[in-house]
Fold:
Amino acid sequence: MDGQEPDLAQWLASHGAGGIPHPGGTLLAHLERVHARLAEWGARPALRRAGFCHAFYGTDGFAVALGDPARRDELAAIAGDEAERLVYLYASCDRGFSYPYLAQPAGPFRDRFADTVLRPQLSVRRDFAGAHRGQRAGYRDRQPRSSSPGRTGPAPPVQLLAAPAQPGRLAVCPDDTAVRLDCRPPAVRPRSAVRFRTGSCRQALERSR
Structure:
């Protein structure tokens, strides 16, 4: 942990995270699992702190909020400006609108709080995907991991996200299925470029045929 993270745990607890039910226990326990997985993957401190606080403003999939997005300076004061910006981005995402375009370098992203449409840079989209992968792992980690022999898990997603991307391509996983995305709009993407597989959330790229 860096110096700010122990304070974050106490601060989130003081905002009620330890008393909010969440799959696998409490919201605070989920946030701690997300942080632990991001740290395991070698995420930089700002991304780890963002993962720790990713539900502070609520999300499009979890409506309970610990803080008010109209008072963003409060979270920034303890988590840092970079982490707070990512927390806000994650919380503000209108998933139904934004997820189909996350893999497009200039794809639209709707801020559900401000009701505005943005076009985040590629590096920001990678951070968003990294936070999301940590969040999904936090759900899965509430149960004991399988020790089945002969099976290897997906490569650490933060390392994949940090790797140089192919021009115009970014792999994201919007839910707990593996989605292989081409970067063209859905209307013109050939069927061979999209594959859905049940199971753990994975990062994958597939060239269209």
